[in-house]
Amino acid sequence: MEKLKDAVVLVEGKKDEHSLGPYMRDGKILQASSGRLRKACEKASELGVREVLVFTDRDKAGEELAKMAEDELKRYGIRADLDVRKTLMAMLRLATVENFGKKYEEKIKELEEN
């Protein structure tokens, strides 16, 4: 979770950005849906980052976008981190990023109770 707070994160759309936003500290969220992938990757390059966390949904479209993002970021010399996505999605039992806030709060509550 700490890595997410300060990272540049690539998400699919506006709902995903709103869900993650409150949990970000110094990081930046880039949207990649609706043909904005190349522009998001260009922005990451302009920011001078070496790595972008790709945080897309666990459906077919999200998987395809994650792969396309990995390929596009590589063209800019940026590593796409798909591991944080995989870990957080499994840990929080998430299918869609837009439910991140709700699921994260539920997990925190569960951990506090135990």
Query: Quick one: biggest sheet?
Result: 4 strands, parallel
Q: Kindly state the mean pLDDT as a whole number? A: 93
Q: State the CATH architecture.
A: 3-Layer(aba) Sandwich
**Global morphology:** globular
Number of strands: 4
Text of the CATH class: Alpha Beta
**In the CATH scheme, what's the topology name?**
Dna Topoisomerase Vi A Subunit, Chain: A, domain 2
Task: Give your account of this protein's structure.
With 114 residues, the chain is of the alpha/beta class. The chain has a single domain, classed as Dna Topoisomerase Vi A Subunit, Chain: A, domain 2. It is 54% helix and 13% strand.
Furnish the topology, listing elements before pairings.
Elements: H1 2-6, E1 8-11, H2 14-20, E2 28-31, H3 37-47, E3 51-54, H4 60-75, E4 79-81, H5 83-91, H6 100-113
Parallel strand pairs: 1-2, 1-3, 3-4
Helix pairs in contact: 3-4
